[in-house]
Design a protein that fits this description.
The protein is an alpha+beta fold and 671 residues long. It has 3 domains: 4-190 and 446-523, FAD/NAD(P)-binding domain; 260-378, no CATH class; 538-669, Sandwich (Jelly Rolls). Residues 539-666 form the Golvesin/Xly CBD-like domain.
Length: 671
């Protein structure tokens, strides 16, 4: 029967750590029992796993989460505070709620369905939001529980045994881990590595020698500069570069997303045990050849802190050190993660202290340090390795580059993705006697696209009561776009919804009728198509709609993502004052409307675009900066309009200092 369970009372339950508050659907003794049973068991306390359990509880079912590590929240609480959002307006459901709760934490406001979102945050704030969600839903989370075995009956998982002696039994299961261990133990087909371009008719999969995060100056890969007989420096592959587009079993590099600060109380970068400067000889040579950095990013997330990531030819990505990680044992993964810690801490210590590094670079690096109030249990160092890809399921539908580009459209979407097709480098190779990085791909997608329901469930013959929203069925390069924390939350909610519907029907999860699933997803706030259908009192005018008039020449483009409709238009940065474009809505009724404008942002955009809003009270002039706030609705104010077509929004170009973009305008009737 339901009972109120305190977090402190359960800290040592069953030999595992359990985090929960509120009504859980379990008695305290049941949570600590040798065998714990729930309607839904989620493996992986990633953002997607936590959202899945919350969704199941909101649908009236018991749910619990098992996590192999001591860390809750995956990358969302592990340093990735600069959200890879793509088109932020496509993030809805509990994922959108999460980012609204982030905003509320920072601003002390209530959370409502129309609250603003905040996509950048400190790790401890994300953890507080997840704690709130779990507490309100009453979700038990068992930390430090590693799978020892899986028991199946025919094509269904019955229970798992953990290495602490507890067993967990469930009617439905979700593998939300970054590694796909439950999927593997359940006998589901998976793959690791890069497909060839030929496998799925793609163009940017497999081996890719490109210019991103690349050595831009000549650097010798040999121990003795320029002498092949001396052998290769650490991290450089001796395998010859394969033809472009060919497949292999390599995966993109991992790192840690550091939370740094320049505050006086910062923790200086430690010199790790096992530090060896030879690891950084390639970087030193690049610097000596003229590279000046920056050698890591410092994106601000709030509180004077950063989400610091890989940047450039030699940075925090430990290229080539993770190949065995996806299929390794827990102990071996611990060793690989420790090696990544040693490498990355050593890199930061090298940049801040090695006397061969120019003083300006040393001083700049040493001005940063670890935030002392984040990750306090691990000395300010992130506890979550950034597992950018590991196993990927092979299901009835494989998401590919064609889906990302809108050339293929899934008939059964359960969520949208919109981020760039993004692969970090996979190896360092020798090309014409110089070191080169290989594998970096960063290619935008034209618009948010649907992820197939069939891509998050295995083939029924393999497992009928499992969904896999993180290690889903996708090619390497498509996964590079899908593998973002908001998308994992979206898919986690959809996976749990399907699992609960299957449980209610007594069917395999694959047999849930898509119309039934779609209806429930939409009822719970998920967004399944782009552009989304207009809401009550909402009128959107796209640049391609009949309600648009233009003067001069406007050029259609899809080069920068985040636009509304099939494309956006720009003025070519020419004919200033001649080019202008007017959005004219057909308003069904008179009233006060909030007016919004949308564009795609880029450094080459104009920062001073004049906008005229024509309304019943006259014309209001605004100026917008199109170098920022791209891919979202930007408020232009509230105005009174008559019914019909008298109102409008005009984009002008005179005096502008860059490309002017016309994408879409929106009128929303105020209640």
């Amino acid at each position: 029967m339901p009972s109120s369970v305190s977090r402190r009372a359960l800290l040592r339950a069953g030999g595992a750590v359990v985090v929960t508050t509120g009504v859980t659907g379990f008695a305290p003794a049941a949570l600590a029992a040798p065998l714990v049973t729930a309607d839904l068991v989620v493996y992986g306390a990633t953002s997607g796993g936590l959202v899945a359990a919350v969704q199941a509880r909101r649908m009236g079912r018991t749910a619990l989460v098992l996590e192999a590590s001591p860390h809750l929240g995956g990358l969302s609480t592990g340093g990735l505070g600069q959200t890879d959002s793509g088109t932020a307006a496509s993030i809805k459901g509990i994922a959108g709620e999460f980012y609204r709760r982030i905003y509320a934490k920072y601003n002390g406001t209530a959370v409502t369905p129309t609250s603003p979102t905040r996509m950048t945050f400190e790790p401890h704030v994300a953890r507080a939001v997840f704690d709130d969600l779990l507490a309100e839903a009453g979700v038990p989370v068992y930390l430090g529980v590693r799978l020892a075995s899986v028991t199946r009956s025919a094509n269904r998982i019955v229970e798992v045994a953990a290495d602490n002696g507890q067993a967990f039994r469930g009617a439905m299961w979700i593998d939300a881990s970054y590694e796909g261990d439950l999927m593997h133990l359940a006998g589901v087909t998976w793959t690791v590595g890069r497909e060839s371009n030929a496998t799925y008719g793609e163009t940017i999969n497999g081996v890719q020698l490109r210019g991103g995060h690349q050595f831009t100056l000549p650097v010798s890969p040999y121990v003795v500069d320029g002498n092949p007989a001396s052998g290769l420096l650490p991290g450089v592959s001796a395998v010859p570069l394969a033809p472009a587009g060919s497949g292999d079993d390599l995966i993109q590099a991992y790192n840690y997303r550091m939370c740094l600060t320049q505050a006086a109380g910062r923790i200086p970068f430690p010199r790790p045990a096992g530090y060896d400067p030879i690891r950084y000889e390639l970087l030193l040579r690049h610097i000596q050849a003229g590279a000046t950095g920056p050698f890591f990013t410092t994106h601000g997330v709030g509180g004077g802190k950063t989400d610091s990531n890989n940047n450039g030819a030699f940075s925090t990505d430990f290229i080539g050190a993770n190949y065995s990680y996806p299929t390794a044992s827990y102990a071996a993964r611990d060793s690989i993660a420790a090696a990544h810690t040693t490498y990355q801490q050593g890199l930061m210590w090298f940049l801040a202290n090695d006397p061969r590094v120019p003083a300006a670079i040393r001083a700049s690096t040493a001005s940063w340090g670890l935030a002392p109030d984040e990750f306090t249990a691990t000395g300010g160092w992130p506890p979550q390795l950034y597992v950018r890809e590991a196993r990927r399921m092979r299901a009835a539908y494989v998401m590919t580059e064609r889906d990302c580009r809108g050339q293929a459209v899934a008939s059964d979407p359960v969520g949208l993705a919109s981020y760039t097709m993004d692969s970090h480098n996979c190896q360092r190779v020798v090309v014409s006697g110089l070191v080169r990085n290989e594998g970096d791909v960063q290619v935008g997608v034209p618009a948010p696209y649907g992820i197939s329901f069939r891509a998050i469930v295995p083939q029924e013959a393999q497992c009928a009561n499992l969904a896999v929203p993180v290690c889903l069925s996708a090619s390497h390069i498509a996964y590079g776009s899908i593998r973002m924390e908001p998308v994992f939350m979206i898919l986690g909610q959809s996976a749990a919804t399907a699992a609960v519907l299957a449980l209610a029907a007594g069917s395999a999860v694959q047999q849930v009728p898509y119309p039934t699933l779609r209806a429930r997803l939409l009822a719970d706030g998920q967004l399944l198509q782009w552009p989304p259908p207009p809401g009550p009192g909402e009128i959107v005018v796209d640049s391609r709609d009949a309600g648009v008039t233009r003067a001069g020449t406007w050029v259609a483009s899809t080069s920068v993502g985040g636009y509304w409709g099939p494309d956006y238009e720009h003025d070519g940065n020419t004919a200033k004052g001649v080019n202008r474009l007017r959005f004219r809505p057909t308003l069904p009724s008179a009233g006060t409307y909030q007016v919004y404008l949308r564009w795609t942002a880029d450094p080459n955009r104009a920062s001073n675009v004049p906008v005229d809003i024509v309304h019943s009270g006259g014309t209001t002039n605004r100026v917008v900066n199109q170098r920022s706030s791209g891919g979202q609705w930007v408020a232009m104010g509230s105005y009174t309009f008559a019914a019909g077509t008298a109102g409008s929004l005009l984009i002008r170009t005179e005096g502008t200092d860059g490309y002017v973009v016309a994408d879409a305008a929106r009128w929303l009737l105020s209640p």
